[in-house]
Automatic annotation (TrEMBL):
It is a multi-pass membrane protein. Gene3D superfamilies: 1.10.3730.20. Keywords: Cell inner membrane, Cell membrane, Lipid A biosynthesis, Lipid biosynthesis, Lipid metabolism, Lipopolysaccharide biosynthesis, Membrane, Transmembrane, Transmembrane helix, Transport. Its main location: membrane. The keyword Lipid metabolism applies. Residues 148-282 form the EamA domain. The chain crosses the membrane at residues 31-49, 61-79, 115-137, 149-166, 178-197, 209-231, 237-259, 266-284. InterPro entries: EamA_dom (IPR000620), EmrE-like (IPR037185), Small_drug/metabolite_transptr (IPR000390). One of its GO terms (biological process) is lipopolysaccharide biosynthetic process. This is LuxR family transcriptional regulator. It comes from the Bacteria. One of its GO terms (molecular function) is transmembrane transporter activity. GO terms for cellular component: plasma membrane.
Length: 285
């Protein structure tokens, strides 16, 4: 069961880094994100309608669904702001590192999961590598823009932690992962509609330049999280959530080689350390 969960999480991490790369390279990020989630929202709406009309859930599950959509909306808004101030290879690992540190700690307490001492070592390596990768150790030399990027990245990490734990509860109640993705799409679309449609010229320009990555991103973005939601059913959250941070390794390499971001050597070394931590946690966690 864990092997299957591991495969799903690794695939989730790869697809997550790719659609984040598309977002970073877009002309107008808020328009790109709105277009991506709107297209996905249209496609997945029938799944949500069928789920809500054919299956009955306790009241607290419906309230959790609303909360999940709200947190997802905050996440997508903060993600847009984060990429406005920082490099992908800087802010991406910091936001993921924040989530990697918080999710296992909270899930151990809330869901009564367990992790071995070797798993703790692997988790520690992952978290340390993520924060070093982000350049947080050199925060005194950061510009005002870098500091804003850090603040937004931490907020993104808190949102990731929140909606992951909420969605774990919803999935545990028997709700469909695909229908749950639609709830996150709706939350994102509601938050981004006003700024995205404030300029029709920007909307037309974004679709003219990036329509291919919008369409592909509308598959990869929900697909990435669907894979992770299914993995939640097969393995403890405290084990698989840090493994998903393999997306940071992919994201860092994409940022260095495609976006030509700086400090490539140290970031590649830290990516290797994170990978070692993931392997440790996966095999002996």
């Amino acid at each position: 069961m864990f092997a299957a969960a591991l495969i799903l999480v690794l695939a989730s991490g790869m697809t997550h880094s790719i659609w984040n790369l598309f977002t970073k390279r877009s002309t107008k990020r808020v328009v790109f994100l709105w277009s991506l989630h709107s297209l996905s929202c249209i496609c997945l709406l029938p799944y949500l309608i069928r789920e809500l009309t054919t299956v009955s859930f306790p009241l607290h599950v419906y309230l959790m669904m609303l909360l999940s959509g709200g947190v997802q909306g905050c996440y997508i808004w903060l993600l847009n702001k984060t990429y406005a101030y920082g490099d992908m290879s800087q802010v991406y690992p910091f936001s993921r590192g924040t989530a990697a540190a918080l999710i296992p700690l909270v899930s151990l307490a809330v869901f009564h999961e367990r992790i071995s001492w070797l798993g703790c070592i692997g988790l520690g390596i992952i978290i340390a590598g993520l924060f070093i990768l982000s350049g947080a150790a050199r925060i005194r030399t950061w510009t005002a823009s870098n500091r804003k990027a850090l603040l937004y990245a931490v907020s993104v990490g808190i949102c990731i932690t929140s909606y992951t734990l909420i969605d774990k509860t919803i999935i545990g109640a028997g709700f469909s992962p695909i229908a749950l993705i639609e709830i996150s799409n709706i939350g994102s679309v509601l938050v981004l509609t006003a700024p995205a449609l404030s300029s029709m010229a920007n909307l037309k320009q974004e679709w003219r330049i990036n329509w291919k990555t919008i369409v592909l991103g509308s598959i990869l973005s929900p697909g990435s999280y669907v894979l992770f939601l299914y993995a939640m059913k097969l393995a403890p959250l405290s084990h698989i959530a840090p493994v998903r941070e393999i997306s940071t390794v992919f994201g860092t390499l994409l940022g260095i080689f495609l976006l030509k971001e700086s400090q490539g050597r140290i970031r590649i070394i830290m990516s290797a350390c994170i990978t070692c931590g993931i392997i440790t946690l996966s095999l002996w966690g």
